[in-house]
């Protein structure tokens, strides 16, 4: 449909649009369109356009209003995104399927829609999923300039922790800083820390997670800065002899990384404090430990602080640099982090 439009060169388009919008002259029912080296901005009243602008008739398309799932369903569903996978947390299978169908019908970008089918379980912290639409549970997640390939069915990953991860990554102080990530997963701490210049050792008990971590290190161009090791960190960082380690097929990491770390990430809430003796063995003369925990709101930081001091003192002076609530985890229970600096006496 031919409608009145201001015709301008593309380089002048944004300034012109703002000038017209200030006078409430932009017609939002039609799309701003580029054609034959010109930009056409639909206007509501050709006579009100300042004389300095060139007003012409142009066949501008009607502006399409994006459709969201709520437009289809009649209510606002709750979901989160991980790359092109949309994640639901619905107890009613029929409601979950309705939401999945609405997401595919809407303008939400989605290759798959999945619904949580179990709680996180086992030492590898994975859960079951119902695939409601699309190809499955594999995704590529983008976060603060990094890309992470993963499969929700075989590894643990939470996009909700992106801000917290970035907070820790930004603390990397210098090129070549030694970072040990004790429960590394697919690398959401290890990879950006390596991009920030750190030399990273990353362990995880989940073989699939370490396989994805190595792929993500390659994907983000930091494979030369990350050493990835499969296994319980208490076993791979142990005092066993090299001969025993070779017989058991376990790498003797203790001889390589004892007193090595400038920074240690311990993101395994509920049980990370059980690994503090190992963390202290890894710590260098001046080391920051980021210990994550789930604690009751009445004393969210005390247990983690006490556990760090019990493991590190008197060999180290312990200074608590940060006490932070990451998120609410359950009624009256918080996911917290304590950043503690250990300085050898």
Order of strands across the main sheet? 13-12-11-14-15-17-16
Q: How does the overall form come out from the CA principal axes?
A: elongated
Distance between the termini: 79 Å
**Helix count from the secondary structure assignment:** 11
Average pLDDT, to the nearest integer? 91
Derived from helix and strand composition plus strand pairing, the structural class reads: alpha/beta
The major pleated sheet works out as:
7 strands, mixed
User: Helicity range of the residues?
Assistant: 25-40%
Element-level helix/strand string: EHEEEHEEHEEEEHEHEHEHHHEHEHEE
Low-confidence stretches: 239-253
**Rg (CA only):** 27 Å
Total number of strands: 17
* Percent range for β-strand residues: 25-35%
List keywords for this structure.
345 residues; 4-stranded antiparallel beta sheet; 17 strands; elongated
Outline:
It contains eleven helices and 17 strands.
Folded structure, characterized:
There is one protein chain. The chain is an alpha/beta fold and 345 residues long. Helices cover 26% and strands 33% of the residues. The strands form four sheets. The protein has a seven-stranded mixed beta sheet with strand order 13-12-11-14-15-17-16, sandwiched between helices. A four-stranded antiparallel beta sheet has the order 2-3-1-4, with helices on one face. The protein has a four-stranded mixed beta sheet with strand order 5-6-7-8, with helices on one face. A hairpin with a 2-residue loop joins β9 (138-143) and β10. The longest helix is centred in the N-terminal third of the chain and has 13 residues, at 93-105. The radius of gyration is 27 Å and the shape is elongated.
């Amino acid at each position: 449909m031919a409608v009145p439009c201001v015709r301008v060169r593309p380089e002048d388009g944004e300034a012109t649009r703002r000038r017209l919008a200030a006078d409430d002259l932009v017609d939002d029912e039609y799309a701003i369109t580029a054609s034959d080296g010109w930009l056409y901005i639909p206007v509501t009243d050709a006579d009100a356009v300042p004389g300095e602008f060139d007003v012409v008739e142009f066949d501008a398309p009607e502006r399409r209003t994006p459709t969201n799932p709520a437009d289809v369903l009649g209510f606002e569903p709750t979901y989160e995104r991980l790359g092109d996978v949309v994640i639901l947390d619905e107890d009613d299978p029929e409601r979950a399927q309705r939401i999945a169908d609405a997401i595919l019908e809407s303008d939400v970008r989605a290759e798959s829609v999945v619904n949580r089918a179990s709680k996180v379980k086992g030492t590898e912290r994975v859960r079951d999923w119902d695939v409601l639409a699309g190809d499955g549970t594999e995704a590529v997640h983008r976060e603060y300039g990094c890309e992470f390939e993963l499969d929700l069915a075989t590894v643990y990953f939470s996009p909700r922790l992106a801000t917290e991860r970035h907070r820790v990554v930004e603390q990397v102080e210098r090129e070549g800083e030694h970072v040990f990530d004790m429960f590394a997963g697919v690398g959401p701490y290890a990879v950006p820390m390596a991009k920030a210049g750190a030399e990273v050792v990353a362990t995880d008990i989940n073989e699939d997670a370490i396989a994805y971590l190595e792929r993500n290190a390659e994907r983000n161009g930091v494979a030369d800065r990350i050493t990835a090791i499969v296994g319980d960190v208490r076993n791979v960082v142990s005092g066993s002899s090299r001969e025993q380690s070779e017989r058991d097929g376990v790498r003797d990491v203790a001889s390589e990384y004892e007193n090595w770390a400038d920074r240690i990430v311990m993101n395994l809430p509920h049980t990370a404090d059980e690994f503090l003796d190992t963390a202290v063995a890894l710590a260098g003369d001046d080391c920051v430990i980021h210990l994550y925990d789930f604690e009751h709101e009445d004393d969210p930081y005390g247990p983690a602080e006490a556990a760090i001091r019990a493991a590190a003192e008197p060999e180290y002076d312990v200074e608590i640099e940060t006490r932070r609530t990451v998120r609410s985890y359950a009624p009256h229970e918080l996911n917290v982090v304590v950043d503690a600096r250990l300085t050898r006496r």
